């Protein structure tokens, strides 16, 4: 997903063109004089209503509900509450050390590393003639079951808890791929509303995350980590509603063969695309930029919530601090579009990375308690530090997203984009493993945080290492990027003419014929 949220209201199309070339008339007022009926103080609210009404007329309320459920509730709300509950679960229920907690977190997010496989599964193995609906239902039931079991087991082994949490992540990542494909499909039908549909997706995610940040702290404080898992376990069942509401026509038996053949063509095109340096060089940089920067967030969480050597922050405050990231999403997107979009890619990665490394050093100030000597309370310092770090992080993330989107050639857009996102997610997984190794080597544990400042300094220095690999990025700005020539027509013909390829496709088709 990508969106230009700061232009959400200004750039909306009040009368978009539908699939048949006719205009959507949009909602009308009783006397046709919107401006007189709605004073300036209500103009933005009225425009927002018109925007939602336009999307409803173009895509239908059921599909908008699917977006809100998958992005806003499943990822935003449930994901935020689950993340905070998981941190306290490792710390207070499992009694793990920071390094072990960091390592288990890396395993939990692994389902996000294989997103392209989910797309291939839905394309290749329809259930009852449907490629999306059954998988949403399965994920809804599976996610709820994993959360229920987590809440009921008083002291499972860390590995069993990790497996259940990874199951929840799988049941979140899979619907994300399904709805991403549906959004892309609907965007092709209504190209004039494609950016608005993305804005609805990002807006739902941000709003759900903000609500989750407000609720997560009091929930963990009142019910504990296990009670919080039980509290949000009902939410995944809304995916059953999404499975019913998502637009999808049932495949006929004759369509199975053509679908499988198209899948094989897509895989071959994908293989050829990845062999192009214009694709694999930026993909390698995306991985290295994440993997080379160790993640020590679990140790910082343990220290923040320690009432003896740390500030002893409450669950409510930790939850609210987590919501800063969602506010920073809007600020980062606005700053990028207003001031930084015209800069070259290498500049856009260079300076945010420098700022990201420098902002990380601010953690040494609070860990060494220097902020108190300067008269800055812990709560105020952390809010300011998190706001700055999150805004910089968003400025660093947006070029990744834009670059990934622009690198996707026609014919394999969804597969390549999912692959690049998975590369980034796998880099984050490696960063967690590297962070766990660093914490273990420095002997940082619940009883001894004396070397935590060293880990912070090393982390900040290692954040500079991706700058060595800037040469992997293309020159020029994002707008200067061109779709790789590898799929401008020649590669399609070469794939189809290749004898080995044709034999492979024929063999696959014969296998399908025997099955059906």
Automatic annotation (TrEMBL):
<feature type="transmembrane region" description="Helical">
    <location>
        <begin position="58"/>
        <end position="78"/>
    </location>
</feature>
<feature type="transmembrane region" description="Helical">
    <location>
        <begin position="451"/>
        <end position="473"/>
    </location>
</feature>
<feature type="transmembrane region" description="Helical">
    <location>
        <begin position="317"/>
        <end position="336"/>
    </location>
</feature>
<feature type="transmembrane region" description="Helical">
    <location>
        <begin position="227"/>
        <end position="246"/>
    </location>
</feature>
<keyword id="KW-1133">Transmembrane helix</keyword>
<protein>
    <submittedName>
        <fullName>Uncharacterized protein</fullName>
    </submittedName>
</protein>
<feature type="transmembrane region" description="Helical">
    <location>
        <begin position="267"/>
        <end position="289"/>
    </location>
</feature>
<feature type="transmembrane region" description="Helical">
    <location>
        <begin position="416"/>
        <end position="439"/>
    </location>
</feature>
<dbReference type="Pfam" id="PF03092">
    <property type="entry name" value="BT1"/>
</dbReference>
<dbReference type="InterPro" id="IPR004324">
    <property type="entry name" value="FBT"/>
</dbReference>
<feature type="transmembrane region" description="Helical">
    <location>
        <begin position="135"/>
        <end position="153"/>
    </location>
</feature>
<dbReference type="GO" id="GO:0016020">
    <property type="term" value="C:membrane"/>
</dbReference>
<keyword id="KW-0813">Transport</keyword>
<keyword id="KW-0812">Transmembrane</keyword>
<feature type="transmembrane region" description="Helical">
    <location>
        <begin position="159"/>
        <end position="179"/>
    </location>
</feature>
<dbReference type="InterPro" id="IPR036259">
    <property type="entry name" value="MFS_trans_sf"/>
</dbReference>
<keyword id="KW-0472">Membrane</keyword>
<comment type="similarity">
    <text>Belongs to the major facilitator superfamily. Folate-biopterin transporter (TC 2.A.71) family.</text>
</comment>
<feature type="transmembrane region" description="Helical">
    <location>
        <begin position="200"/>
        <end position="221"/>
    </location>
</feature>
<feature type="transmembrane region" description="Helical">
    <location>
        <begin position="348"/>
        <end position="367"/>
    </location>
</feature>
<dbReference type="InterPro" id="IPR039309">
    <property type="entry name" value="BT1"/>
</dbReference>
